[in-house]
Amino acid sequence: MSQNSVAAADRLSAHLRELEQRGGERAAALRAADAPPQRQHGLLFRLADYRLLTPVERLLGVWPLPRAVTTVPGTARWVLGVASHRGELLPLYDLRGLLVADYAGVQRRGIALIVPGASAAFGAVVDAVLGLRRTLPASAAAPQYAPALSALVIGACDCEDGTLALVDPAAVESLPAFAAGALTGTAGAPQGPARRA
Description:
Elements: H1 3-34, E1 40-47, E2 50-55, E3 61-64, E4 79-85, E5 88-94, H2 95-100, E6 111-115, E7 122-126, E8 128-137, H3 147-150, E9 153-159, E10 162-167, H4 176-181, E11 183-184, E12 189-190
Parallel strand pairs: 5-7
Antiparallel strand pairs: 1-2, 1-8, 3-6, 4-5, 6-7, 8-9, 9-10, 11-12
């Protein structure tokens, strides 16, 4: 074989390897594009007039609000108090009062979403749990909400109920109103200005 033939064969071989590599990359991209969208599960709940979803992996559990709730004097109106949950004191916060300032719904009934807080778990009380939903990434933007409620929105998703906001109830801890009126730790010690004796 001549030297020109060997060089031409080497160039052809290198070109074929390059085409094979590019084809493999494009095939992987096409397979990923054709894959069905990843479904997740969300817990649909009602808070005042809003229907919201929270990813189930962001919850420790769901608990019917107990009858035995101990109120804590001097706390914000939306702090319902503390209750014993699995041998631990669990602070209970009314999200309706905190986020939409609607105290008509402050009551001794509802459902507590048990949320892993920054320092301790707490119960985020909502009006009703409507069930589990399979969710897909949203095809449209989430509806607009009041500023305090918007602070909890982490995205939007589609489910059988339409496009809904995806919220993280633990994000209430970042709200200034929460820091001013919430209980800290599991002992239920109030946070904020010193109380008068």
